[in-house]
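Reviewers asked in the last cycle whether our approach scales beyond single polypeptides. To address this, we selected a multi-component target totalling 934 residues and predicted its structure end to end. The input consisted of the following lines:
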Amino acid sequence: MPQLELREITKSFGDVVAVSRLSLQIEKGECFSFLGPSGCGKTTTLRMIAGFEDLDEGEILVENNLYSSSYKKFYIPPEKRDFAMVFQAFAVWPHLTVKENVAFPLRIKKYPREELEKRVNMALVSTNMTRLKDSYPGRLSGGEQQRIALARAIAINPKVMLLDEPLSNLDAKLREEMRFEIKELQKKFGFTILYVTHDQAEAMALSDRMLVMNLGVVQQVGKPLDIYNKPANRFVFSFIGLSIFIPVSIANSNAIIESTNLKAVKNVPSEFEEKAIMACRPSDIDFLPDSASSETEDYFKVPATVTRRTFLGDIVDLRVKVGPHEIRIQKYSHAPTPKAGELCYIRFNKVLWYPYES
Amino acid sequence: MNDTIRTRKKVDVSTIILILSILVLVVFVAIPVILIFITAFFENGKFNIAGVVKILSDPDTYSALLNSVIIALGTTLLSTILGTFFAWLVARTDLPFKNAMKALFLVPFMLPAFIGALAWKVLLSPRSGYLNKFLMQLFGLEKAPFDILTLGGIIAIESMYLFPFVFLQVEGALERMDPTLEESARISGASLFTITRKITLPLVMPSILAGALLVALYSLSHFGVPSILGIEKGIYNIPTKIYERIYASGGSFGAIRVATILSTILVISAAIILKLQDVLLKKGQYQVIAGKSMRPVVLKLRGLKYPLLIISIIYIFITVIMPTVTIFLVGGLKTYGLPFKLQYMTFDNYIKIFQWKITKDAIKNSLYLSLSAALVTMLAGTMISYAIVKMKFKGKFILQFLGVLPFSLPGTVIAIGVILTWSGRFGINLYNTAAIIFVAYIARYMAFSIKSSSASLSQVSDSLEEAARACGASHWQSLKDIVLPLIRPGMISGFFLIFLPALRELTTSVLLYGPTTRTIGVAIYTLNEDGETVKAAALASIALIIILLGETLIRSFVAKLEQRSTHIKEIENAPA
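The resulting structure, written as structure tokens, was:
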């Protein structure tokens, strides 16, 4: 029995389709992320699950009980869903102390005094906020405010915990730290997490499974590693990391870089006949020594000119020109790389193929 | 950074600005106030607190004090309830036609309260009120059902026109409030009622109280409504008592002294109220403004939806439409007291308004006084704000203090101070001339001007001016080419913010007018006092038309400005 089930849910705002026929099953204890650019419908999906938005079409079930249904015009209001939610802007109440903030949902649910104290303390200890329990949130930092929001969410031990870009208002370093803390809390308490983010690293680090969305339509659902290694389409490929797309024409299952006569890669899958898009990550392009043979069983040695070389600390970011195409390459800075203006040879590794579009 | 270079010059712009700013505030604001305090507390050159106590404990003045407090408290309470309720209705429920209703709730702001009071006197005075007579006929009553000429009547009418202070504050706070604060309470299991009680109300409480204090401040020193509805029955508050004393005695020193003592009380109460408001707003500055705007939690009114809409519409009808229509109808009567029937109506009165000397003069006086006062005050206020907001100099706190002073000076107090200052004491006698009203208006509207220009100046980042200086522009050039063009829209709307209220000003002018220097407000008021209700109503109608036209113009202008500034913001926020 899935913990949460979405059946063909659809939602539009005016002419804009925010979410289109989304179906999904999420298991108990799973950490599941919705990943996509802003405006892709991920937050709308989360708000429909929370009960803040009605559905235009579809149904939402929790443990096989109907929670939302557009067909039956049936909606359990948000306050009756036994969920917890953490918002991007933290949404901690400025007129209540840290402790009162955490205790609020327990008070509403009429927990007996002892149980309430126990749970509040547990939540404050888990989030490292015990020291600040009598402060008002206005005086605390963003990270501390977000910990209050987390403590408030874990105190009630919710069926499902919804997180709406909870870390995007924090600075980069704190974001990484909190990402780790959320994962730890989830491991400890085992609740189901639905996590909305536009940050692919965050989604990868946290999720058991994730979903990539664009313009209201699901692009791919799967484990982070599978999505990274086998993106279902160009959008997912480009969203999940740095990407290079090179149009190629195909002859004898060799890929020839468009507008040049340079052969790049062998063994193009047979479903691509004349033209295709070759996709590759900047880190998967290697420099070859001049002495390397001009072809092996997988690839050709491609001549290129380095146009720009930028030192970024632990990595070096290069732009090389192959015919009219500018290609980005990233290498660890300890590895030898050519200088700007130099001629060099490259090869394309781990390429993926997508249908041609100009 | 180039202080050393600057001091070598003989006169530089910042010194001029500083000196002029202090001079303006001292001459137009500080001296009148100081003279009021001196006159109040010194008799024959000696400090005399016993005399002050004696005057205050005189039953006549004491009852005026008491009435002021009762009216202010009552009005504040009623306005706060009305304002908060309607603000919540508009911002947090699914009331139909919300935007239209929001605009309508702000209309009472545009109507001068004393014209409203005039209309209500016509409708609900116990003996001859049209509405009273109609109700008596309808239900066969012996006695008039309403008597507007009472403390209760004054409170009700003041609240009708002052509740937008609370409405605006609370509605704004509710709209700016981060909706996720309420949503997170909701997902925690709280019902909408609990959320309203435990989250929403506590969060907007500072705004409610701030609005309430504004109402109290305004009501305490309000002249128009109590003068029209109270004086006839001997109900005085502080401003009307001051007016009565000065006019009864023809401006004798004894009367002036009583006036200064009462004024002192007004100034002190105003200062306390402003201080309280400041404390409250600082305390209430929660970070409730969200980055991401979502639609707020809206309470579904369900069955109450249309009843509440109807109640709101009836409220608007009673407070806005009925009095306005009444004024226009009375202005068209052949003789006051005739029923509103076509054969008794005439358009002549409206034409004659532009021919009678009194009314013609009044319109002319008001127009040029408010135009000139608005222009001068706007420019002076901009200069003073620039000194306060942008300049760094020693002893800035003196200028800051002087800059806050105008805020705590009610119109009546300014009039008394101006009389003391400009009646020959310093060799200049402006009494009975239009010039004395002009200097009074400068003091009266300085607060508006400083407030609006500080707001626009603080939006101009210091770095813009510094960038100009770094390019080699002099202080004057950077002012002229960078700062002024950037705040010009703010200055223009600041001008109208002074011009429109000055056009309908009554409280100050009524203590300063001479035989030929009536303003529109004074003319309406004195015509009504002299029993010329029809002429008063006709002039009031003309005034309403001018005011409504002006307000509509300024609103569309401000809307355009806002559109432009959000456009600029969008450009700034656009990803590079």
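Chain A has a mean pLDDT of 90. We regard this as preliminary and will revisit it once experimental data from Aim 1 are available.
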